[in-house]
Structure formats: structure tokens, C-alpha cells
């Protein structure tokens, strides 16, 4: 292991600050992650040395920018084990990637009466695009049930996926429950029925080694900003044979082969999907983030986070009146812990924790149907990343206890 | 310790209103009603109003929410009874300015006990919680709906 | 004037470098512009102090990020004189903005037989989206002619825009010819016939004061990266009453009001268009770029660039065998100069100039129909920005002369 | 002075091929033909091939382009005549490696005079110009089209 886990936070200047006079403990990583110096410096370096528009230029800067821009595509392909960098499409983020699958693949191949299957734990970004597509096409949107501990109910998956199913789309890991879904198994069911398998990798890619070929899936989308990369850059991966059949959605710029007055031909995938000037500095930053993550090792990140959770979770469960959503076995979950304190609204909890320097999130986490399914209005959510420590977990527990104290007794 | 600052937000009176809200429930004979959602957290508040001789004669709210939104709703209901729509409008404007830290005049005179929510100004993320009920009654009266409609909370 | 024009380049670290052993003279500003230290530092500062996801968070960082993110919206509204910041939509860039108008407004309101009118000078980003829309809807795409010097032919505009016209879309300034189009005048014609007026502001916004209300138009799109802001951020402005009628296109995240299993309601504009986590750092950088530009003053930038062009253009015209495309009157153009040297392919010219440290572009500039119209395969293009100087212009002229010499005589 | 480096790219022989290209024109009896576009600049090149006894017996190219693409096309036509499809494939691979700076063996033996284009490796932005004609003939032969089709230039 090239890097010592307990020193990682030194690479993140933002973590070296006080918030409300308390040392910041950032536990809102499921919303977005912090950036190591290496990523910010890669962006600065790009703007101070190489900035130019890519592809179209003959001059030296344009050539440098293009080479770096395309090198990251190769790096991403390797990072998720795609069979070729031509399967790697730059997007704004997971949301855009999932929407593009719906708008391009979905609008092209869906027929009235066809079925789309998702689950009750989906983020709105992996729900509303399908809802909208289903409505437009006269298709049916179906939901896979969850088990009482928040895991995907495989019996329900077998029931919901039928020969009418054309698209199955699931989160790889839930942004509320922390549950990791058995994607490879569901993919087999989907393929048995001739459906394609789409995976929302927003909450898995930052925390584990992704191998899209081993999963056997057809599409995979994730966001850079959730894995230490800049905002405004994400990846849509798709199998070449599917991408080749899909129409582009944003027209103009480098996606074009030849434009005549009334007719246009497009480049091949992935370029045909990349209309207009891309977020070039974002791409460079994504490359630096992947380098940083790989210098630690995705397997090491996964196992470090499991240890962290194995440490924090039992202590949280010990707090009286706490309810924790999602599986309790660290082997079956990521470092996202959603919880509620009896008689306290999560918004009040988050404000109180913020006063202690502990940044967590409260709300529906863009998963309103899941909130309804869990029968809660909202939850508090602490989410860990590899730069968090056992001490951060301890601080969270202490702050939760102090919050309870404050609201129960009206005193600090 | 950090939590001590919470006293600025969660004053005793606020905690009491939140745990025993006034005018919580529903009205059978409402002239106006409106459902409003806090986009940040998804909390929903329904406000119902009865008007008599050009004044608010009764009001009720329902729906769940955080301490701030519940307390604010409860205080709002206390303060608007007996007021004309124009007075309610002035109250809503004043309240909104108070919690966003804008200077405004005669706050105590206009808002009464609800002035105690001024501490929210130091907690920008909670402004929407505090204003939810006030925006709801404003829109309810303005729209003049007898049927329940869903209002819009401005995003910012 | 707060800033002295001739010292601006000191604010741009990238310009302080040698390329091929020669001092870099960056004249590819129509493709993308360089970033002043203030912009890069705003990004760094954001990542080192305030980075969090916006809107959804209760904690301190989230609140700071949200406040900055929304403050830039106000700043942009002021920058282009929009009547409200609720008319300001964050996009990836001009291309995305124009595509969204076509996909949302166009798909909703266009009927078979309706007409869309553009011109022969359009960038592919303001051409292919309309072509695609027309094909999908059975509408007709028509082109306004150009005058021999590359200006818009107003007689043709009067002829092409008819009662059947539903959308007129024009570049405010051409990225090849430098011509500035009489938008206010064309808008009056469009409105007379009940059509809406869309303006591609990619090449105008960086160089002049934009006032969308004074122009009288309905939509306006531009890119941050062409006005010193980061890559991956742009603006779509639209009149509120039109935005309100338009369906969103990217579903998920903060654009949502309430999601039920089979039905979803959306926020108001502009938020309903902003699906998923936005390019937050890009937005912050855009704010810093606008501050930088306004510290100079858009009117000052415009008049400085006119002086520059008035200086360079006559000297270029003096070069034997040069052909320059576009109007020659500096009052009627921006700092984009497209040219060809007799008997030389622009690609070879650009390579030669690059050896001299002069970065220009060669190719079709994403305007293939215009190339056809001009009856050239490609052009070379030098494009100036406010940090360029008269000395840069002189270097360009010298380098062009040396290039001619090299290819004509095979010697340096 | 910067321009002196240009000599590495624009060798005298290259300039001559560009101004007087060999096999420039069209063939009436082509067995294979293909049109290929350089996506960076929009230049178009059409290559036509006549095969006889399993070998390239005649070849022609048309279309306009820069010095590098015209010279490269001209040299390509000189070199491929008399070669089998397998030999042409080897030439295309070798040429591609040479101009992208990858090490490869027997370059001169395989490419003949076209070896002079190795200087392109120092001008990455011009690699596509140099490879256009070679990719065109490769695809033309491989696709076996009698009708003219439009080929694809890989983006990178
Ligand atoms: C006139 C014009 N329109 C549109 C665009 C597209 O802008 P972007 O690539 O930033 O989307 C450009 C720039 O390439 C342009 O010059
Ligand atoms: C599971 C899941 N899917 C999708 C998204 C959307 O990602 P983004 O907002 O980066 O588009 C998120 C993050 O908010 C998420 O957690």
C-alpha cells in the first residue's frame, strides 16, 4: 500500500479547518467528496500550461490538451475494466448518463407495453428518467421490493423481471441504505429475458473495484465529484454494440463527421455523444483522481471502509432511540449510514451536529419513494470515505449523544 | 462547546411550540387552503384559513416537520388571527426579512412572539424551515382556493 | 479603467511560456480562452475551503457552496441584463443550451410544415440541432444568405422569415467571419411573424456588453470557457414565460419537487432544467471570470479589441496572396480573422505558425456549410482577445510572411 | 528561429510529392474504392484500387488536402503497387507505428520512400494528415466495395 490510510486527510486542505469553532469532520461524502491537492493541482497545472480546445487544433497547446483529454479516456477504461476506451463517454455526471440511456436507447427501442424494472431504493436520477420514458412510450415502470433490512428482494426481482422487460436499471449501491446490490445475479435474470442491464454506479465506483465486464452489464454511469474528481464530469460506459445503435442527443462540435445543409453524419461512439466543448479541465481532474485512488488501491479502500464501519456501526446501534436503515452486516454495505433519533427531526439533528463540526446530511436524499417505503419523512445520513478515520466515527457518536441530550433536556 | 450556539436557534419557547403546537389539525369550513413543500427535505405543511368580515377568524396547520418549521407554524397561527390579508402580507414580508437577516422596522410590533425566531438568520440552511408556514398562509389567502392546491416554495 | 490593457497578460500564467523555443502568442481565442489567475484561484479556493453539494445540505459547507452557487446566477443575470436570475440556467456550454431549446421548446411547439430559419454562417451547434428537429417534426430548415463580405443579407432575412416561421436562430457573432449580426433588427422581423428569436452568443458575449432585453430576443446561449471561465459551464437564458412552458430534459436531483412511484412534479425554472449535481466549481469560476471582465469593463474590452483589429487587419491585407474572409470594417466585426494564403493549405500554415510560437487554428471551424458557401476546404483563423497586444499582431504578420517564404522557396 | 524545425516535417521530397502527386486522378475500372475524411479539417480523400492476380495492379487518389496528406497519398500509391492485401496491411500498420513514434522493425524495407514521413512523429497534430491515405487504402481493400462508400477515420 503506497499510502498510509491514517494520513490521507493531510492531502485534503479543506479538512484542515474549523467549522463553528470545531474541527471539521466531513461525513457528507455520499453527496460529494473532497478533493486531494493532487486533483486541484492537476486542474491548475492544466490551466497554467496546457489549456486549449481539444481535437480541432494544430498548435502545440491544442495537441497537449487533446493528448491528455484522450489519455484519461484510456485511464477510465482501465479503471472500470471496459474492453475499450471507445466505450467511455464523458458526461456531466451520473444523472446525465442515466438520462442519455433513457433518451437514446430507451426512446429508440422501447415499445408500448414493454416493461422497465427498477427498485424501491433508486435515487431520483435512476427513477424519474424511466418514469418519463415509460409515460412517453406507453411502457410500464415496475419496482423490485426490498427485504426488511433494506437489501434487494431477489424473489421479487425474479417476479418483476419478465419476458416483457426491456430495461432493468438498478443502483449498484444505495445512497440511503448503503446496501450493495447483487448486480451480476440480477443481470443474469435480465439477460435471460432479453432485457438490458443498466447500473447506477454513483455510490459504488468511489468505494470498490469496478469491473463492468465481470458484472456482465450493458451500461454503467458514475460521477467524478463523488470520487475526489471535479464537479461537472462523469462517465457513461456502454457496450460498443449498443452504443453503435444509439442516436446522439446533443448536436454540434466534435461529434460531427460531415454537415451538409439538410443532412449530417456523425462520428463513431463515444465521440458522437460528446457535443460541444467538453469539461476538459474536469476530465484532467478525473484522471488525477483516478491516479490518486489507484495509488491507494480500490481493494484497500473497500477493506479500510469496511473496518471503519465495523467500528462505528455497533457503537451507533448502542445509542438509545436510534433507528438505522439498511443492512447491518459491514460485508453487505458501504460507508453510508442513514438513521433517525426517536422524537427528533433529522433536520434538527443535522443542525446540531453541524455546531459540533460534524457535517452530515438530512432529508429525503433524492429518494422520496424510498422514504415512503421506509415510512419516514426523512433521515439523517452520515457517509464515510477513505480519508475519514475511527476518530471521526467517535466524534459522530459523541455529537449524536450530545444532540439527544440537548433536545431532551433543553440544556447543553 | 459547539452545541451551546444552538440556544440561539432553539429557544425554550420554540421547543415548547414545536412539542405542543397551537392550531394543529384540520378545519371543516376553510375558505382557503394550501399545501406547501420544503424542497430541501420534502416536509409538507398544509394551512387552512377561515375568513370572516375581511379578517382571519380561524386557521389550522397540519403535516410533519422539524422543530423550526413546526414552531414557526404554530407561532404564525397565533399571530395571524384577527388580521386582514394586507396585514398578513406585511407579516410575511417582515418575517422573511427578519430570518434572512435583512433589516426591517417594527419587527416586534408586527410579528409579536414570532420575533423569537430571529435567531434563524444565523442558520441559513434553516431559513426555508422557518418561512414555510408563512409562505403557505400568504399563498393560501392570495390564491383564494377553496380546494386544496399545492403551492410552490421558491428555491432560493 | 481599473486595469491597464497592456499589462493584462501578466494575469495569465499560461501566456508566460515558450512554445517551440518561441514566446507563445495565443491567437486561438475563438476556440477557447485562457484563464486569469483570479479564476483558477477561485476554483482552488472553493475546493480548499467550501466544497460541498448545493441545495440539499444543512451543514456549513453546503450552505456556503449553495450561497456562492446561487450568487453567481444573480451575477450572470446582471452581466447580460436579464430581468431575473430565474431566467439563468446553468448548462455545459453553448452547444447544450442550443440543443435544449430545440429539444424542449422545439419538440413541444413545432408542427409539420413549420419553418426554422438560420443562416449560412452558423456553427454546427446552431445548425445540426435545428436540422435534427426539423427532420423529427417534418418542419423545414431555411438559410439566410450572406453578402459578399460575409455580413448577413438582410434582404434575404426578410424573404426567408415568413408567417410559417416558428424559430429564428442566429449567431450574434460569427466564429469564422467575425461578422456581428444585427440581432435586434432580425428579432423585429421574427416577432412580426410570430416566431421566437434564439441567439448563439458564444462569440459575442466575451467581447461586448450583452443586453438581452435591449436585443428583444427570446433565448440566448453562451459558453464560459470562451470568456475566461472554466470548461464545462455555460448559460442558457430564456424569457420566463417561455421557460415556464417548456418541459425539463434531464431528470433527477435538485430539479425535482415531488416524486411518486408513477408521477413526478418539477421545480420552477431555472431549477427544473438543472438535473443532477451541477458543475459547481465551474459556476464559481464563471463568477470570478465575470468579475474579472467587469473590472475591465465590457465596453472597454470592445473598444480595445477594435483598435487592435484596426491595427492588424490592414497589415494582413498587405500580405501578397492572402485572402481574408468577413467584413473588413473593424466596426462591423470582432477580433476573429479567417484567412488563406494562396497555394498553401491552412493546416500547413498553422503548423508553420506554431513553430514560431503563434497558436492559430486551421480547419472548417465547425462550420462546414459556411466553408462550402465560401467555396474553400478550410481556412486558417487567428482570433484575438483582450490580453493580446499590438505586438502579438505584429508577430502574427511576421510569422505569416516567414511561412510564405518557407513554402515558396523551400528555405527558412 | 522556430521555422527551421519545419525542415524535419517538410523534407524536399515531401514538398515535391505534394506539388506533383503521383497517381492523382480517378480510375474507371476500380475494384475497390473508398472515401475518407480527416475529421480535424474536413479534408476528403478518395482512393481507388484495381486488383489483379491477388495484387494491387493500379491505384489512384483524388481530393484536396494539406501538403502532408497529399504527399503521403502520393507516396502510398507508389509503394502499394504490386503488393498483396496482406502486404498492404503490414505497410499500413508499419506506417501508422512509424508516424506515432512507436518502435517497429524493418521500416525502410517495408515502406520504401515513404519512410521519409517519419518526421511527422514530432508533429502529433499532423499524424491524421499523414495516415489518411493509408487508412483509406486499407479500408478500401478490406471492405471490398465496388461502390464508393464513406469510411471512418478513428478519432484518436
Ligand atoms: C458561434 C459558436 N457557436 C457555438 C459554439 C459552441 O460552443 P461550445 O463548444 O462551448 O458548446 C462555438 C464554439 O465552438 C461558436 O464559436
Ligand atoms: C445512487 C445515486 N445515483 C445518482 C446520483 C446522481 O449523481 P449526480 O448528482 O452526480 O448526477 C447520486 C448522487 O446524488 C446517487 O447517490
What can you see in these coordinates?
The complex is a heterotetramer, with two copies of chain A (412 residues) and two copies of chain B (156 residues). Chain A is globular. The model of chain A has no long low-confidence stretch (mean pLDDT 95). Chain A is α/β, with parallel strands linked by helices and 412 residues long. In chain A, helix 1 (37-50) packs antiparallel against helix 9. Chain A has a seven-stranded mixed sheet with strand order 4-10-9-8-7-5-6, sandwiched between helices. Chain A contains 13 helices and 17 strands. Chain A folds into two domains: 5-31 and 298-409, Aspartate Aminotransferase, domain 1 (Alpha-Beta Complex), CATH 3.90.1150; 40-294, 3-Layer(aba) Sandwich (Aspartate Aminotransferase, domain 2). In chain A, helix 6 links the parallel strand 7 and strand 8 (196-200). Chain B has a single domain, classed as Sufe protein. Chain: A (Alpha-Beta Complex), CATH 3.90.1010. Chain B has helices at 6-9, 12-19, 67-80, 85-99, 107-111, 127-143, and strands at residues 32-37, 44-52, 55-62, 149-150. Chain B has a four-stranded mixed sheet, with helices on one face. In chain B, helix 4 (85-99) packs antiparallel against helix 6. The longest helix of chain B has 17 residues, at 127-143. Chain B starts with 5 loop residues before the first helix and ends in a 6-residue tail after the last strand. At the A-C interface, helix 1, helix 2, helix 3, helix 4 and strand 11 of A face helix 1, helix 2, helix 3, helix 4 and strand 11 of C. Bound molecules: pyridoxal-5'-phosphate (2 copies). One pyridoxal-5'-phosphate sits between chains C (30, 93-95, 123, 125-126, 171, 175, 200, 202-203, 223, 225, 366) and A (253, 276-277).
Amino acid at each position: 500500500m503506497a499510502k498510509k490510510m491514517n494520513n490521507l486527510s493531510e492531502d485534503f486542505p479543506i479538512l484542515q479547518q474549523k467549522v463553528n469553532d470545531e474541527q471539521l469532520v466531513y461525513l457528507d461524502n455520499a453527496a460529494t467528496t473532497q478533493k486531494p491537492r493532487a486533483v486541484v493541482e492537476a486542474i491548475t497545472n492544466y490551466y497554467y500550461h496546457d489549456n486549449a480546445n481539444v481535437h480541432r487544433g494544430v498548435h502545440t497547446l491544442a495537441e497537449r490538451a487533446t493528448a491528455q483529454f484522450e489519455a484519461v479516456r484510456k485511464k477510465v477504461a482501465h479503471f472500470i475494466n471496459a474492453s475499450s476506451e471507445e466505450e467511455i463517454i464523458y458526461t456531466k455526471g451520473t444523472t446525465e448518463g442515466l438520462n442519455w440511456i433513457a433518451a437514446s436507447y430507451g426512446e429508440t427501442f422501447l415499445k408500448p407495453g414493454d416493461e422497465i424494472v427498477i427498485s424501491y431504493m433508486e435515487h431520483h436520477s435512476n427513477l424519474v428518467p424511466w418514469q418519463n420514458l415509460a409515460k412517453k412510450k406507453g411502457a410500464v415502470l415496475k419496482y423490485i421490493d426490498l427485504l426488511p433490512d433494506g437489501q434487494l428482494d431477489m424473489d421479487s426481482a425474479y417476479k418483476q423481471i419478465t419476458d416483457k422487460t426491456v430495461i432493468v436499471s438498478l443502483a449498484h449501491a444505495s445512497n440511503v441504505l448503503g446496501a450493495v446490490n447483487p448486480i451480476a445475479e440480477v443481470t443474469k435474470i435480465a439477460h435471460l429475458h432479453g432485457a438490458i442491464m443498466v447500473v447506477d454506479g454513483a455510490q459504488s465506483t468511489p468505494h470498490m473495484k469496478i469491473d463492468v465486464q465481470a458484472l456482465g452489464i450493458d451500461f454503467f454511469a458514475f460521477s467524478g465529484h463523488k470520487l475526489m474528481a471535479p464537479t461537472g464530469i462523469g462517465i457513461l460506459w456502454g457496450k460498443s454494440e449498443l452504443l453503435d445503435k444509439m442516436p446522439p442527443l446533443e448536436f454540434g462540435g466534435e461529434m460531427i463527421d460531415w454537415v451538409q445543409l439538410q443532412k449530417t453524419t456523425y462520428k463513431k461512439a463515444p465521440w458522437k455523444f460528446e457535443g460541444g466543448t467538453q469539461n476538459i479541465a474536469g476530465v484532467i481532474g478525473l484522471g488525477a483522481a483516478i491516479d490518486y485512488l489507484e495509488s491507494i488501491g480500490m481493494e484497500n479502500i473497500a477493506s479500510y471502509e469496511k473496518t471503519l464501519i465495523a467500528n462505528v456501526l455497533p457503537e451507533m446501534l448502542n445509542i438509545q432511540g436510534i433507528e438505522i436503515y439498511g443492512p447491518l452486516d459491514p460485508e453487505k454495505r458501504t460507508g453510508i449510514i442513514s438513521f433517525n433519533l426517536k422524537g427528533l427531526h433529522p433536520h434538527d439533528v443535522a443542525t446540531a451536529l453541524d455546531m459540533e463540526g460534524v457535517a452530515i446530511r438530512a432529508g429525503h436524499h433524492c429518494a422520496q419513494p424510498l422514504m415512503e417505503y421506509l415510512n419516514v419523512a426523512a433521515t439523517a445520513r452520515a457517509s464515510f470515505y477513505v480519508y475519514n478515520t475511527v476518530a471521526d466515527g467517535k466524534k459522530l457518536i459523541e455529537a449524536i449523544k450530545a444532540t439527544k441530550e440537548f433536545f431532551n433536556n433543553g440544556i447543553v | 462547546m459547539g452545541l451551546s450556539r444552538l440556544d440561539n436557534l432553539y429557544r425554550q419557547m420554540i421547543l415548547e411550540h414545536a412539542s405542543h403546537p397551537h392550531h394543529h389539525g384540520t378545519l371543516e369550513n376553510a375558505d382557503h387552503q394550501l399545501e406547501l413543500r420544503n424542497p430541501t427535505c420534502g416536509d409538507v405543511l398544509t394551512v387552512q384559513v377561515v375568513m370572516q368580515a375581511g379578517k382571519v377568524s380561524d386557521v389550522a396547520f397540519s403535516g410533519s416537520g422539524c422543530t423550526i418549521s413546526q414552531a414557526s407554524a404554530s407561532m404564525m397561527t397565533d399571530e395571524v388571527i384577527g388580521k386582514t390579508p394586507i396585514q398578513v402580507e406585511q407579516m410575511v414580508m417582515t418575517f422573511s426579512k427578519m430570518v434572512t437577516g435583512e433589516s426591517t422596522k417594527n419587527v416586534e410590533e408586527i410579528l409579536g412572539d414570532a420575533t423569537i425566531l430571529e435567531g434563524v438568520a444565523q442558520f441559513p440552511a434553516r431559513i426555508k424551515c422557518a418561512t414555510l408556514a408563512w409562505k403557505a398562509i400568504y399563498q393560501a389567502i392570495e390564491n383564494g382556493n377553496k380546494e386544496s392546491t399545492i403551492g410552490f416554495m421558491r428555491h432560493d
